[in-house]
Every structure is written in structure tokens, then in C-alpha cells.
Specification:
The complex is a heterodimer. Helices cover 36% and strands 22% of the residues of chain A. Chain A contains 7 helices and 9 strands; from the N terminus they run βββαββαβααααβαββ. In chain A, strand 1 and strand 2 form a beta hairpin. The longest helix of chain A is centred in the last third of the chain and has 16 residues. The two termini of chain A are 20 Å apart. About 10% of the residues of chain A have low confidence. Chain B has 9 helices and no strands. In chain B, helix 4 packs antiparallel against helix 9 and helix 8 runs antiparallel to helix 9. Classes of the chains: A alpha/beta, B mainly alpha.
Amino acid sequence: MGALFRFVEVRCKGSDRVHTFTLHAGEMRLLQLASGAEKNAMIDSAIGVTLCAEGDIETVQGERRFKKIAVKATLGERRQHNEPLPVIWQPVHSSRHVAWVAADGGLISNLRIWENVTLPLWYHDRREVMETEQSIRHSLGVLGLKQDEFGEFMIAQPDSMETWQRKLAGLLRALLQKSPVLVVDATLFDDVKARLAGCWMLALESYAAEGRAVLVMSDRAMTLPCEKIE
Amino acid sequence: MKNPLLLMQSWLGMQGLFVRDSVLLFGQVLHALPAVIKWPVRRTLLKQLYFTGIQSVGPIAVMGFLAGLIMVMQVSNLVGRNELLTLQVLIWTVVRELGPLLTAIVIVGRSSSAIASELAAMQVNGEIKDLKRMGISPVAYLVVPRMLAMTITSSVLTFFFQVVAIGTGMLVTAWNIDVSLFGEIGHFFEMISYLEIFAALLKSVCFGMLMSLVPCYYGLTVRHSMNDIPVAASRAVMRSLMAVFACDGLITILLF
């Protein structure tokens, strides 16, 4: 299996630990980090929103070339990130190669669920409505939602939903993007019924089995059915 | 007590930073303008056009009607039964100044505070960061459609205000001093110049940009505290109004 995601001596701000590993197609692995802050910093670096303090994070693009999405910060860039500048000036250089599942769903509160779910999909790509609808129906079934609940779920506002429903919407949004690499915050599985968590794990496993990779990041020891990165 | 000169220096420095950051944000908006072809951005644009434009038609119509009525009554008291002078004053005030300015004040009151608080709430809830994590530029997705919608809305509503105010003024004049309404309309088109139309259009476009840029700036620069949301909204309204009046003064000095 080809390599999809490579961490080379990556260290995040405020952490002493250095991580080096490669994620291959078909793999789902768990990276345990020391604290919540380190986990968040690592997720941001993995997605490409911020720079890591040291090391390189590389992704494989379509033509199988590695491309750096987060590089060692230069002095000027470090100064920019350390200073309390307005958030709007921070560069957005997220890679479509890596999708992300938030612990709490990461939904936008003034959009309905269907708008939230299709937001990154239709922002980055032109997809047919029918095709998207079919994918959503299929994914919702896989994620353990009953078919007669689909309509009500999709038109609901995030504020009116329960925690597990928001998490489900966040997971659905990430799965629909079909990015080669999926970064999952392991807190997603907290406070979720065992049956549902089992469905979601199966969905992530089958996502990885389709030639993609899933990287689960946690800030404490968890018993998830995936190989741990030492 | 601190040295007043140092306080003044600090205040001027803050104003300078505000102007610099606003100009930078405007540059980012121009750079992100092509994103308007993306479906989610277009959808936000349509929502903003509805909230800022369609829902403001009623208040603008009422204000235009009252402004035209008051203006004509006051001018008639001042100049007597002089149809041409009354019309000239209407053009000077409504087309050149009151139209763009009063429309801007209504839009600032309705929409600028709403934009600032909406974006500030998104910032406090971490939704702006969530957008970035999805690879979506907050400027492209949030600021571009708001600025476009406010600019379009400001121009259209200014024109609407002017039509209502001048129409009311003409009707009242025609009824008050017993002259032909069609004659008045003819005189109006003879008197109004292209420069006045251009000035009104330029003002409304500039006001629209300022009224959206300033609240977006204040909304997005909020830190992570709920207390900052009302502060951002109030600052956005005050600063938007100041920016609009300053811009109005500048354009008036340059053109007339």
C-alpha cells in the first residue's frame, strides 16, 4: 500500500515530544498525545491551518508526489503566530487532501445540517445535487441513523440537536469529502452510545479500506480498535 | 495619571492600526472576490441581499416619503411659491446628500450591528476556526458576500429613497402651489446633472463597502469572550457611521 501521510520529526508548540510516522492507504491508526492542547495543535498542523514548531508534515497528492503542507516555521512566521494578531490575518492553507472530524461536530450554528454537511463539499468542488443526496443517504445509513429520521435530521438547526447528532453531522460532513486522509478527534466517541460508536468505527474502517487513511488523535489512553502509533 | 501626550499618541496609534487593518482586509476581499462563483458563497450572498435589501425596503420608503414631505414644506416656507427653486433644493439635498446618507444610516442601524454580532459570535464559538479547518477562507465565505450584498443594496436602496423622496416632494409641490406634475418632472430632468447622479452613485457604492468592511473587521477581530460581542456591535455601528460621514465629506469636497 502506498504512503499517504508522513510526519517527519514533528513537534508542536508547547510540547517536547517529536513524532515521526507514515500513514499508508488502508490504514487506521491512533496517535496518543500528551494533552488536549497538543492534540489541538497537532490537528491544526495536520490539516495545514497552522505551522508546527519543528519538522515537516507531508501529504501525497494525486500524482504520488509528497508535498509539504506544514513546514518548520521561520522566525518571521513564528513571530506572526506568537503575536496576538487579529485572527483574520492568519493564512488559510488547508489542504483538501486532509479532511477533519471535530470532537463536537464543528458545525456552523447559522446553517442547517444539510448546509453544514455540504459546505466544504460544494465550496471546494462542484458536485451534482443528486449525487450528493445519494452519498448522504448511503452514509447516514452506514452511520446508524434510521431512514425515517433522515429528513428531519437534515433540515434541523445545530442548536436544536443533541450532542451525538451534532457529532454525527460532523462525521458525515468529513466522510462525504472523500479526502485521501481523514483526521479524527478521538473525543468524538465520548458520550456516544456503544452501538452508535461501533457503527462509526465501522464506517471509518470501511472509509480507510477504500484506499484512504484515517488518523485518530487522542489526548488520553483509549481502547479503540485501531493500531496505536508508538 | 498618565501623560496626556502619551495617551493621545496611543489613541492615534490605535486609529492607525484600525485603518491599516481595514485596508488589509479590503485587499483580502478583492483577492477573494472570485470565490463568489462557489455555491455556498452565492447562497450567503443571496441571504444577505434578502436581509439587508428586501427587508429594508419598508423603512427606506417611509423615510423617503417623510424626508421629501418635510423638505418641501420647509423649502416652501422659505422661498414661497417658487416651483423651480424648490426643485433645485430637492436635487441638491436629496440627490447629492440626504439620499445616500439617510439610506446608509438605516442600513448601518439594521445590518452593520447584525453583521458584527453574528461574526463575533461565530468567532467566540470557534466557528471561524472550524471554517479554516475545513479549508474555507473566512474572508471568502463570510466577508465577500456581505460586502457585495451591502454595496449592491446600498446603491439600489439609495436610488429607491431618492425616487420616493423626490416623488413625494413633487406631488406635494404640485398640490400645494397648483402646478402640473408632468411639468415638474420635465424640469427635474432638465435641472439634474450627470455629476450629481455620478456623485450619488459613487457615495452609495463607497458607503456600502464601508458599512460592511467595518463591522466585518470588528466581528472577526473579537477574542474569545461573550462580553466582546456587544462591544464589537456597538463599535461597528459608531465606526461605520464615522467612516460614512468622513467618506461623504471627502467625496463632496472632491466633486463639488
